[in-house]
Automatic annotation (TrEMBL):
<dbReference type="InterPro" id="IPR036164">
    <property type="entry name" value="bL21-like_sf"/>
</dbReference>
<dbReference type="GO" id="GO:0003735">
    <property type="term" value="F:structural constituent of ribosome"/>
</dbReference>
<dbReference type="InterPro" id="IPR028909">
    <property type="entry name" value="bL21-like"/>
</dbReference>
<comment type="similarity">
    <text>Belongs to the bacterial ribosomal protein bL21 family.</text>
</comment>
<protein>
    <recommendedName>
        <fullName>Large ribosomal subunit protein bL21m</fullName>
    </recommendedName>
</protein>
<dbReference type="GO" id="GO:0005762">
    <property type="term" value="C:mitochondrial large ribosomal subunit"/>
</dbReference>
<dbReference type="Pfam" id="PF00829">
    <property type="entry name" value="Ribosomal_L21p"/>
</dbReference>
Amino acid sequence: IDPSVETLLPLLRSQPPFYLTAHIHEKPYLVTQGDTIRLPFLMHGVSPGDTLRLNRATLLGSRDYTLKAGVPNKELGEKQKWLDERLFVCRATVMGVESEPLRIKEKTKRRQRHVRKIKSKHRYTILRVSEVTVNDVDAVKSSSV
């Protein structure tokens, strides 16, 4: 851990409530504790009541302090950089699955009388952020990931 992070992390930790930019499937979501997230897709392999740990984050902050992940160098082909997951804990609970009303779109081809009806009914996963905390410097040093 960088020495500047060691000195500034207690200042950030002393100022709750915290916010976090968590990334789920490379889409950023700015969340605080108690927020509800409606993901624009159905997350497979989860059921209502499951707890997820969101460990991909680029921004962690409070009212006066912000901790950012490094900026990737696109010329060198670097990918997105993330905050060290030992610095924070972000947990979300799966609330359920929501579905939109059935949409019917009529598709026709030119000079044809036949009309196809395309049906779509998308489903979305709903998450509730149950915990956003910043870990202590001693806890970060003692744990190794």
